[in-house]
Amino acid sequence: MRVSGVLILFLSVFLVKLNAQTKQDQVLFTIDNKPVYTSEFLRVYNKNLDLVQDESQKEVDNYLELFINYKLKLKEAHALGFDTNPSYLRELSSYKKQLANSFMKETKVTDALVEEAYERISFDVNANHILVKLAETASPKDTLAAFNKISELRDRALKEGFEKVRQEVHNGQTVYGEKLGYFSGFKMVYDFETVAFNTPVGDISKPFRTRFGYHIVNVLDKRESRGERTVAHIMLVDNNNNTEKAEVKIQDIYQKLKQGEDFEALAKQFSDDKSTSSNGGKLAPIVGGQLRSQEFEDVAFSLENIGDFSQPFKSAYGWHIVKLYNAKPTPEFETIKPELINKVKRDDRSKLIDEALIAKLKKHYRIASTPDLSYFESILNDSYFTKTWFLPPSFIGKKNLVVIGKRSFSYKHFADYLMKSQRNPTAKASFKTIVNNVYNNFLNENLIRYHENNLEDENEEFANIVGEYRDGLLLFDLMENTIWNAASNDTLAVKEYFESHKANYISNEKIDAVVASSSNKKALKKVAKWFEKGYDVEKIKPLVNSEDKIEVLFSTGVLEKTHQTLPENLPFNVGVSKILSHNNSYVVVKIKEVLPKKQLEFVEAKGAVISDYQQQKEINWVNGLHEKYEVDIDEKVLQEVKNKIKNN
Asked: Residue ranges of the PpiC domain (predicted)?
């Protein structure tokens, strides 16, 4: 089983890798002539100074010894081939990919979109729209026709009134004219939402395009968000098989509610909404603009106090009485921010984040324009749409198409990508459009892949973190195989170690006792008397404590002198102690038996023995590494390092 990244980074606390040293950087020491530079040691020392709890290790000489031992272990890990183990390489690759994701985000764009999203969920917009449908892959001719049509409708709407035109042109096939009601952020596609929120109340927007076609929007109202409501309802509808009118019956039910009868019980018995009646009429939480019935929503949000219920009212679905269960305002930004980040990443907004990253990478790798793709347009034919297209025998593959960083991509690279793109459903479009779209995808994917693969060379912070993880993971594998597993599995050697170090495994003096603790000294005086009389704990508890108030806490068992419930000055004598101060409180202790020190058996001390054996085995092993590899410290440079640390 592999270890967590947290543990690996902890194990690598003494290492921060540098990608390159400056000309002024000095060699502090060498291991078999391989240099380790002062800059690396200083960075490691300064970074980890606050993490080192042993004050002696903060001394430069002691810290240098730890650092050299760490470097020796890493050299041995490489010598033994741990860096080529498939499991090690898989885990390192997985970690790098996961870490790269956080380094390849456009955080400024994301933050701006999250703040914008919060602003929009804080308001509701009431709008109507007219849509001229248009496929995303429409030809230039059809696109122009749709744009001209929506422009014509806007001109009419400005002169004749939006609502008149909306009703006249709606045919539900090529032109839609819809009343949308109130909606908030994330309820519409992002492009539509943006225009609706940015158009002043009373205005008609200019034509704009979404993936559905061309729209114009008439904004009727904008209000602060109503927050969230949890309500239940009783609904009655007129039934031809029932002579009793729903309006009459709903009034009778309302009267029963005013008389104090249970809302949930009446909903279960009488509500015609079978999807909620079994649950006492309770609905899932709702927000403004979510429901199709404006009448229902207005009543639900008009209730002010939890438990209030409305008068009977009618909607398009029937007669209702609504009861309020919970009311939540729009949460504070910091509270809802994590949820908004996830929504933004799943929403159309994520395209803006991706586009910002691509734009940044194009600038970084100096990709200014699209190359000439006319050759690829010329070799395409209609078989592409039936997924049977192949490259012609005369295809020119070696010619360079685009360069990203230090890598060139040839015509053949793009042609292979173009071949694979046949697998995706493709509406008929011009070969020029197809080639350009496929090239953009090809370029974007390779920009991201190249950047991810070269992050270590291009981002020092990323390189340092990966370096820590790489060597920490390597060190863990080495220690696990060389020390930890060996110590755990070598039972005979561990027992021999125990036999030769028995004096280290003697139990401390202990007491079998009852400890009574309280801030009330008078209560403990009573407990002490009952201890003297031989009362057991269960008999004493009800004499000092009640269900309403706990005056004294009791602890029982075999306790060492260092146990947290015992004061330091407690004499280990059989009997009842004096009342002693302890942690701003008082204790009295009844000692039943004093258990003297004794030699532990191997089974009793096994955990401590294995730990000590591992430490000794590691010491011997590290000493062997010092003999195996030559370490040469430049004392002059070391003194300069000490002076630099002292002056800082």
From this structure: 122-221, 226-326
Residue 459 CB coordination number (10 Å):
17
104: helix, strand or coil: coil
The pairing of strands 318-328 and 228-236 is antiparallel
Quote the pLDDT of residue 322: 96
Q: What is the pLDDT of residues 53-92, one digit of tens each?
A: 555 556 888 889 999 999 999 999 999 999 999 999 999 9
Question: Whole-angstrom Cα distance, residue 176 to residue 173?
Answer: 7
Whether the CB-CB separation of 1 and 470 falls below 8 Å is answered with: no
Q: Residue 130 and residue 125: Cα distance in Å, rounded?
A: 16
Confidence label for 554 from pLDDT (cuts 50, 70 and 90): very high
- Determine contact, residues 139/429, Cβ cutoff 8 Å: yes
* Residue reference for tokens 């559905």: 212
User: Residue 58 has what pLDDT?
Assistant: 61
CA atoms of 362 and 356, how far apart (whole Å): 10
Express as a percent the part of the chain with pLDDT over 90: 65
Residue 344 tokens read as: 């933004």
Are 303 and 310 in contact by the 8 Å Cβ rule? The answer is yes
The single-letter code of the amino acid at 76 is E
Contact 407, 399 (CB under 8 A): no
Task: Convert 578-588 to b/e letters by CB count within 10 Å (16 or more is b).
Answer: ebbebeeebbb
Question: Which is it for the CA torsion 158, 159, 163, 169, positive or negative?
Answer: negative
Q: How far does CA 506 lie from the centroid of its chain?
A: 48
pLDDT per position as a tens digit, 399-444: 999 999 999 999 999 999 999 988 776 667 789 989 999 999 999 9
Q: H helices within 319-396, ranges in order?
A: 333-346, 350-364, 374-379
* pLDDT class of 465 with cuts at 50, 70, 90: confident
Tell me if residue 501 falls in helix, strand or coil: coil
Model pLDDT for residues 257-291, shown as the tens digit of each residue = 999 999 999 999 989 998 999 999 999 998 877 78
- The whole-model pTM stands at 0.60
The owner of tokens 């039934």 is: 239
How many residues in the chain? 648
Instruction: Say whether 127 sits in a helix, a strand or coil.
Output: strand
SS3 state of residue 581: strand
Q: Is 588 left (phi over 0), alpha (psi -120 to 50) or beta?
A: beta
Q: What is the pLDDT of residue 136?
A: 85
Burial grade of 22 (CB within 10 A; 0-12, 13-18, 19 or more): exposed
Per the structure block, which two tokens stand in for 540? Answer: 């004493």
DSSP secondary structure, 134-176, as one string: --TT--HHHHHHHHHHHHHHHHHHHHH-HHHHHHHH--SSSEE
Residue 459 tokens read as 């981002």
